[in-house]
Amino acid sequence: MKLTILGTGNALVTECYNTCFVLSDGNQHFLVDGGGGNGILKQLKSVHIPVTGIHDIFVTHKHIDHVMGIIWMIRAVCQKMNQGNYQGICRIYAHDELIPLIRNMAFTLLQAKEVKHMEDDLIFIPLKDGDSHEITGHQTTFFDIRSTKAKQFGFTFKLENDQKLTCCGDEPYQEHEYSYAVGSTWLMHEAFCLYSQAEQFRPYEKHHSTVMDACKVAEALGVKNLILYHTEDKNIENRKALYYKEGSRYYTGNLYIPDDLEIFEL
After folding, report:
1. Which of 5, 58, 138, 250 gives 215 a disulfide partner, CB atoms 3.0 to 4.6 angstroms apart?
2. Count: domains in the chain
3. What is the rounded distance in angstroms from the CA atom of residue 200 to the CA atom of residue 148?
4. Do 196 and 246 touch, CB atoms closer than 8 A?
């Protein structure tokens, strides 16, 4: 099982791509979010993940740095279907308020020959809090993070030997997510900036957290491996070292601050 980080940045980054990633079991790929544009296609090409190998896509919420790349994915998938190069169905999972938005954008922006597949071959699966689906052979349970900005879901993904990976979306962990996140082998959590730079980047005003906050959460939850993402990019060359230095003061597990296109063996 592999985790490929396609993008690590927040909405307005220019030195990296917006946060999105792929979970892969062999040649089966599960894409989570699409970033803010057609850069998603370049990122997938860079890590040799073909569009034709992605049959499951999850969209966390409607913010443009997560959803606009999905429109490009729909276009790419439907073009492959038109060419006879895409085998099977593509499933897009999202909460019930988000699906109409994605469908409307697709029907407005794409050609009729592309969106014709959105009834039978490219299907939308509406999610409710606590819904579970088998994705790439792994039980995946989705949960409402109860965002006050825009409705957003996270998920927990069962790995082998009772291990699990939990994604809290792009907002701070909240107590109602405890049963999903506690004891996670891997926890994916946003960290907008260093706590020492909170006055500069003002993460709390944006409903985000700092490296210190995320690391304290992971320590309290007994997480073995913590991945920080959705960061600022003002000092991206030193991001790993700076974030690790602050975070390791509060978290004793394995702390990772990935670059775009970094791959983890789960």
Report:
1. 250
2. 1
3. 23
4. yes
Asked if 39 and 12 touch (Cβ cutoff 8 Å), the reply is no
Q: Which residue range is the domain that position 155 belongs to?
A: 2-265
Banded pLDDT at 58 (limits 50, 70, 90): very high
One-letter amino acid for residue 88 of the chain: G
CATH number at residue 36: 3.60.15.10
Neighbouring residues of 48: CB distance < 8 A, sequence distance ≥ 6: none
Q: Can you tell me the distance from the alpha carbon of 165 to that of 157, in angstroms, rounded to the nearest whole number? A: 5
CB 71 within 8 A of CB 105: yes
Q: What is the pTM of this model?
A: 0.98
